[in-house]
Design brief:
The protein is of the alpha+beta class. The protein is built from 26 helices and 26 strands. It is elongated, with a radius of gyration of 53 Å.
Length: about 750
């Protein structure tokens, strides 16, 4: 259920007689408003109208607020009455505008009770909403006494200002006036109490008060309105002292809304008719504008962070005629030390003489004379400009800014630059800075040691000029990539020393990015790695020689054993001492030689070009079948699963050889028999893994590391070439082998194949 507004309630029960009667008067429509216009003292135009309450009492006739407000204020009726005034005044102002009257402000007096205890902000918003009046055409008038209660008042006033209405202080000067609240509060207007206006022409003190209030309002940029203007003399006095507006019986007594409509034009004719002439008023306000401008300029100069001063030339001496600004005080000076004095009065002779030379240049007409100065540890930059009158320099104006922090920053940067330059110039690596066009803007001295050229020879030249032709495309691509991707990169390229020898360089490039995210420079740290590369090549050759020697020794050993056996049996046959079993042994030795040679031949072959899709399960079954027949003590268990149907691209003969080698190793690891478990497991989304798990003797970690080396085998007569070949096959097929094992706990071999055809296989 929504609550009705107070002035629409049919029943009111209040203990106080006056309060009850006042609320009853609302219901009986005995309360009404009169309006007293305010006019602009320059143009005479109506700028506002103050809403004034009246009570048409059935027994006592028309009562003014002074007759009943004091009694009503003791209770709670006043809030209800003032809310009614607020709604009524807003609706009336909107009605005037709808009738075609020029828009003006309607002002409503607000007492302390609704301001401090009621929901005034809500009431104002509701009154504006109900009436449709724009907030700028409503003004609330408060008293000085209310403003003094700053703790509770200031927040409410700021809320009202945010709505967009104006706020004025009524009867100003009558109470305890304080500049403090005038500066802090969001006040737009001061209304001079009529008691001062009445006596302003008869009492010098009252006259002084009125002038002071007007001057204070001007300085605070507030409008000022005089109340109670009764005579033409008062009107002229207010105009002469530049009061903004006035209201009083001379202009118009409080009248009804309808009368104000009827007499609106006549009200606007009064001030032009009996007041000062428009030209005289214009001249007074023009002087006021100039005076106010001078005051504002003076305040601006005093409050500026820098310093402004002027000087002129008197008897061949440069005398200061103005000096203002915070910078002056930061220097430890004040206006008394500077004004009317020359430089030598507050500076040492050397500094005064130096600055006088700049003063002389400006006085002689040179434009934009600048110099730096320092007073008591404060650095500043001064700009001098001559001011002319009748073609001659009348004075010189100077503007100064504090550059102390800038000086400190520059010194810090200079020290930092010196430190980093020292580092750069003593590094063995070359530092090169490139601009966006690829030109060299800085090169460290190390370039002389590395390439035999001086840094200045490279300045503003293209970096590609000092790179071997075969390397230019690679370097250009790397620089362009840094520019586009804005990421560091590393590259190796060749250059040539001035003596003609090739130099191998390694560069680490870092892009320098500005605030807009664009690459402005590239910094390259370049190291000479020629000796390192040559050393690595030498070590690789030694490693190859060692591998060849190791391989030759293994081949000799593996071939010598069967050859020795065959030689012995041939000698026996020469002496007719041969037996049938000798031939079997010789055949086995020949078979061993053939296997070794076949493995060597495979290692020298190129990768197969015969690739086809083969199902994993079928391939494993084909590898297991012959082993089941020959190894009766062993069991081969291929675990079922959907992965058995997966297909891989491979050379079937090579993969068959791979699994023959791996399964044979598992069998040899279990001389007394056992089970070999084989599982096929999908790996990620594009690979398949085959696990071969035996229950054999296992291997140590050290032995696992050497698997795949030629002629290293865990079997008594093994050559180690089988696993070497297995690794080679997996390399051809883009897969890999992985062994895990522990002594006496068996071995697990993982074979991982890609499901798709590898590019290198085609």
């Amino acid at each position: 259920m929504s609550m009705q507004p107070w002035y629409r309630m049919n029943e009111v029960t209040e203990p106080d007689e006056w309060e009850s009667s006042l609320l009853s008067a609302l219901i009986r429509h005995e309360l009404f408003l009169h309006y007293q216009p305010m006019v602009d003292l320059k143009s005479g135009k109506v700028t506002g109208a103050e809403a004034l309450l009246r009570w048409n009492h059935p027994e006592k006739g028309v009562l003014l607020p002074k007759d009943f407000f004091t009694c009503a204020e003791k209770g709670g009726a006043l809030s209800s009455v003032e809310e009614w005034i607020l709604h009524t005044a807003c609706k009336q102002n909107k009605q005037w505008q709808d009738q075609g009257l020029p828009p003006f402000v309607v002002s409503v007096n607000i007492s302390a009770f609704p301001l401090l205890h009621g929901d005034l902000v809500r009431a104002v918003e509701q009154a504006l909403l109900d009436s449709g009046l724009e907030p700028k055409y409503l003004e609330l008038e408060i008293t000085e006494k209310m403003a003094m209660d700053a703790v509770r008042t200031i927040d409410i006033l700021f809320q009202l200002k945010r709505i967009g209405i104006s706020i004025s202080v009524d009867d100003f000067g009558k109470g305890y006036s304080s500049l403090n609240y005038l500066k802090r509060f969001p006040i737009d207007k001061l209304k001079i109490d009529q008691s001062f206006v009445e006596q302003c022409l008869e009492d010098e003190k009252e006259e002084s008060v009125v002038k002071t209030i007007i001057g204070m309002a001007k300085n605070l940029r507030l409008q000022v309105v005089a109340e109670g203007v009764e005579t033409r003399e008062q009107l002229l006095f207010l105009q002469q002292n530049l009061c903004d507006a006035a209201q009083g019986h001379l202009i118009c007594r409080p009248i009804s809304a309808g009368e104000l409509t009827d007499h609106f034009s006549r009200v606007q004719e009064i001030v032009p008719a009996i007041g000062m002439g428009p030209d005289q008023i214009k001249q007074l306000w023009k002087k006021e504008v100039h005076s106010q401008a001078r005051i504002e300029l003076s305040e601006a100069l005093k409050n500026q962070q820098g310093m402004t001063f002027k000087f002129t030339k008197i008897d061949e001496r440069y005398i200061h005629t103005l000096c203002e600004g915070e910078l002056m005080y930061r220097m430890g000076l004040n206006a008394e030390q500077v004004l009317g004095r020359e430089l030598s009065a507050f500076l040492d002779s050397a500094e005064a003489e130096r600055k006088t030379s700049f003063y002389e240049r400006a006085w002689n007409g040179e434009e934009n004379v600048n110099y730096e100065g320092c007073v008591n540890g404060v650095y500043y930059l001064a700009a001098l400009r001559p001011i002319y009158q009748s073609g001659k320099v009348k004075e010189v104006l100077a503007s100064c800014v504090d550059i102390t922090d800038l000086k400190k920053t520059v010194e810090a940067l200079r020290a930092s630059e010196a430190k980093y330059r020292l580092i750069a110039e003593n590094m063995s690596d070359i530092i090169v800075v490139l601009n966006r066009a690829g030109s060299i803007t800085y090169t460290s001295p190390a370039v002389t040691t590395v390439l035999g050229v001086l840094p200045e020879e490279l300045q503003d030249r293209q970096m590609l000029q000092f790179i071997l032709p075969k390397e230019k495309e690679k370097v250009q691509h790397a620089v362009q990539k840094m520019m586009e991707e804005k990421l560091p990169t590393q590259l190796t390229f060749s250059s040539v020393h001035r003596n003609g020898t090739d130099v191998i360089l390694e560069a680490k490039g870092t892009p320098v990015i500005d605030n807009q995210g664009e690459v402005q420079q590239i910094i390259l740290i370049i190291r000479n790695i020629t000796a390192q590369v040559h050393a690595e090549e030498f070590l690789r050759k030694i490693d190859k020689l060692a591998a060849v020697g190791h391989l030759a020794a293994g081949v000799a050993h593996e071939i010598r054993n069967p050859v020795t056996s065959i030689k012995g049996f041939v000698q026996l046959l020469r002496h007719d001492q041969g037996k049938q079993e000798y031939f079997d042994i010789m055949l086995a030795e020949f078979q061993q030689l053939e296997n070794i040679l076949r493995e060597f031949v495979f290692l020298t072959q190129q990768r197969s070009a015969i690739y086809e899709r083969v199902a994993i399960g079928k391939m494993l079954e084909d590898a297991i079948a012959p082993l089941r027949e020959s190894c009766t003590n062993h069991t081969f268990k291929l675990h079922p699963g959907t992965a058995l149907d997966l297909q891989i691209w491979c050379d079937p003969s090579q993969i068959r050889q791979l699994f023959d080698n791996l399964l044979s190793n598992s069998v040899n690891a279990m001389p007394n028999g056992g089970t070999v478990h084989i599982k096929v497991i999908p790996e990620e989304h594009d690979k398949v893994k085959i696990q071969i798990v035996d229950q054999g003797c296992g291997m140590s970690e050290e032995r696992i590391k050497r698997l795949g080396e030629p002629f290293y085998s865990t079997k008594e007569k093994g050559t180690g070439l089988g696993l070497m070949i297995s690794y080679k096959i997996m390399e051809y097929h883009g897969g890999y082998l992985h062994f895990t094992s522990e002594p006496e706990k068996g071995t697990t071999v993982e074979v991982v194949f890609p499901l798709e055809k590898v590019r290198s296989a085609t």
